[in-house]
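Researcher: Go.
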Amino acid sequence: MNTSGRATDQGLRLIPFRGLRYVPERVGSLAAVTSPPYDVVVRPDGLHHLESSDPHNIVRLILPQAGTATERNRQAATTLKNWLADGVLAADPEPVLYVYEQRSGDLLQRGVIGALALSPASEGIVLPHEDVMADVVADRADLMRTTGAHLEPLLLSYAGDGRRAGATAVIERVVESAPLLTTTTEDGVAHRLWAVTDPVERARVEADLAGRQALIADGHHRWATYLRLQREHTGPGPWDFGLVLLVDTARYPLRVRAIHRLLHRLPVAKARAALDGLFRVRDVEGPLPRALDVLAGAAAEGNAFLLAGDGRFHLVDRPDARLLERTVRADRPAAWRELDATVLHSTLLDQVWRIPDAPEHIAYIHDTEAAVEQAERNGATAVLMHPVGEDVVRDLARQGVTMPRKSTSFGPKPATGLVLRSLGTDAGGPDVGGSDVGGSDVGGSDVGGSDVGGSDVGGSDVGGSDVGGSDVGGSETGGPDTG
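Model: Structure:
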């Protein structure tokens, strides 16, 4: 495993593609058809809200609803095929890279969207930092395979030089021009998208990234899905690349938040009783922001968690050293052994509370208030976490050490629905939405025949629905997280 922070061999290879985008004239508003990433959507309330915001909301593709997994995936493929045939979605006429901007208050994030050459972690080019679950990868693979499309970009970060050079310089020149689209989602985040059409500028981006190493900030299950589907194809083709957003965190730092756990079948009283003699447990006065401040102070001194669900808050810290010696693996670096997520999973969930890591027992929730509300409503226990630093995440990833899954939430996350990638279109044909790329003709229509957005889409397009596509300033949509 390369640990230098620079990529080996070819490094990051980002190529242009013909993005599928909504035709503005065919939808109510761009804000109303976007969605947070599939694993952040609150289910069922947030899902239903997105479905009702517009009949063409992207959630109908990323989270199709039907009786079985097979039916759901076929429904998504049919929906995609119909939207293309009806001109709701159309492909840009030429392959391009896209510059994407998110802005809210003092937060500004810019990056480049393209198709990234896939590589295993052992090559040290794209570094995962969290474990994945095989059943989630299988589910996402079935959806991608059936639709023949990458429906939402992963969020990857790389550490640039902190200067206005290379890809960053191209990005900052491009944003001076008129965007392809601009929209503002109800959470107040303004989104803009540009096409990088100049071959010289694209070459500058590609040359700069060729020497970089990226960290998967968000989308581990989807990256694992990309690799799985690549292995299913013997020859070179569009499956060798995956849709990503690359952000230079030296120029545009990401925000790192915790992902909380909701323990469906464990009441708070039972959780507390099991900790007697193993951890220190203290009641903490609310409201929630104050309790989180107390958690932050305790986390600075060592492992700490906040339990909620009974109308109160309980700080859990100072684990017994002998308990940690018995329950935490000794063959990992100290930074991994000391992670709150490591102690939570290895010690509390596996040994003290004995809770299986399965959806019927645990939900992973981004939004703190949503975690507490659901715990109180259902007599469950919410385990609130304090975020880990990005430097710790990156250092462990460079050592080839993965953290327990759902240890971090990087953001802001890209809104889903602004640009998609059709594997059939990237393969050189108009075929999208079949069980194999090129296996299903989209109603005889030329997917690339319509220019979706050579012009500015009318300023700030504010939809009336809460589609909160990004994690900004605490507004992230909180929901069970599986991806």
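Model: Residues 1-8, 428-483 have pLDDT under 50 and may be disordered.
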